[in-house]
């Protein structure tokens, strides 16, 4: 009803939820900002041999205090996971984790939502734009943002690159600030109590800027840690150009190393 009446939601969903609203495929990268430990486990499976781990195409879940085995595919409990089929296994685990367990609820939500807003009207948006459409962009207090930002490497508030960074932020429109915030943290929304209450996948995690890479690189984001890896650009113009292109194209997103 909020969307129908042009009202903004006072809150937000996790990013995969918006992708499900758009009927887009959920991937391993989507797990990263939701459950880092689980993401790391699945990522390990992708990049290492699983021979000898005795994994099958099933998962164990606790339901009403009891452990229940759920097949990820027909007769999954009897199908071993091997190095040749492990990517399918990871894909099915993610699909079950995000979609399978709430399939009926998500179907009901989408049916109700699409009665008010036809699906074809939101298909033109990506998940980032849909979040902004539904939740809007708050008036972002740049001074509060600047006050509650951490620096890594040899960056400090007085470093020339950081001075140029905040100059760029102050001169941006509020929408552009929201897009940058979304690029780095996964959401354009600021916690109710301001930037001091920002949380990452490991608990409280302030917005962080780290000196990383060389000036020919684009900035990159680690949404799990609310961290922006920012090369030490020597000029304001280069910084704004690279930052804008990274945010608009997500060219700098590389996830967690």
Describe this structure in words.
By secondary structure, this protein is of the alpha/beta class. The chain has two domains: 3-134, Hect, E3 ligase catalytic domain, CATH 3.30.2160; 138-249, Hect, E3 ligase catalytic domain (Hect, E3 ligase catalytic fold), CATH 3.30.2410. It is 42% helix and 12% strand. The protein contains eleven helices and eight strands. It has a four-stranded mixed beta sheet. The two termini are 41 Å apart. The relative contact order is 0.12. InterPro entries: E3_ubiq-protein_ligase, HECT_dom, Hect_E3_ubiquitin_ligase.
Chain-wise SSE layout:
Elements: H1 15-21, H2 28-32, H3 36-47, E1 58-63, E2 66-71, H4 86-98, H5 103-116, H6 119-122, H7 127-135, H8 142-147, E3 149-152, H9 160-171, H10 174-185, E4 199-200, E5 203-204, E6 207-211, E7 220-222, E8 227-230, H11 236-249
Parallel strand pairs: 3-6, 6-8
Antiparallel strand pairs: 1-2, 4-5, 7-8
Helix pairs in contact: 1-7
């Amino acid at each position: 009803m909020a969307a129908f009446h042009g009202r903004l939601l006072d809150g937000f969903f996790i990013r995969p939820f918006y992708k499900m609203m758009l009927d887009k495929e959920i991937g391993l990268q989507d797990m990263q900002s939701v459950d880092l430990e689980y993401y790391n486990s699945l990522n390990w499976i992708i990049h290492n041999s699983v021979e000898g781990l005795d994994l099958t195409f099933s998962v164990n879940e606790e339901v009403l205090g009891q452990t229940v085995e759920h097949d990820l595919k027909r007769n999954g409990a009897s199908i071993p996971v091997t190095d040749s089929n492990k990517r399918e296994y990871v894909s099915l685990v993610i699909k079950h984790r995000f979609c399978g367990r709430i399939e009926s609820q998500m179907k009901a939500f989408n049916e109700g939502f699409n009665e008010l807003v036809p699906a074809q009207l939101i298909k033109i948006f990506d998940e980032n734009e849909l979040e902004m459409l539904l939740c809007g962009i708050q008036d972002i207090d740049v001074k509060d943002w600047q006050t509650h930002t951490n620096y890594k490497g040899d960056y400090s508030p007085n470093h020339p690159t950081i001075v140029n960074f905040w100059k760029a932020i102050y001169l941006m429109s509020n929408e552009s600030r929201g897009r940058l915030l979304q690029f780095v943290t996964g959401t354009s929304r600021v916690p109710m109590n301001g930037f001091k209450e920002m949380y990452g996948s490991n608990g409280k995690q302030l917005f962080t800027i780290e000196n990383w890479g060389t000036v020919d690189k684009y900035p990159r984001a680690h949404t799990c840690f609310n961290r922006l890896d920012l090369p030490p650009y020597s000029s304001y113009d280069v910084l704004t150009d690279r930052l804008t292109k990274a945010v608009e194209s997500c060219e700098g997103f590389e996830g967690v190393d």
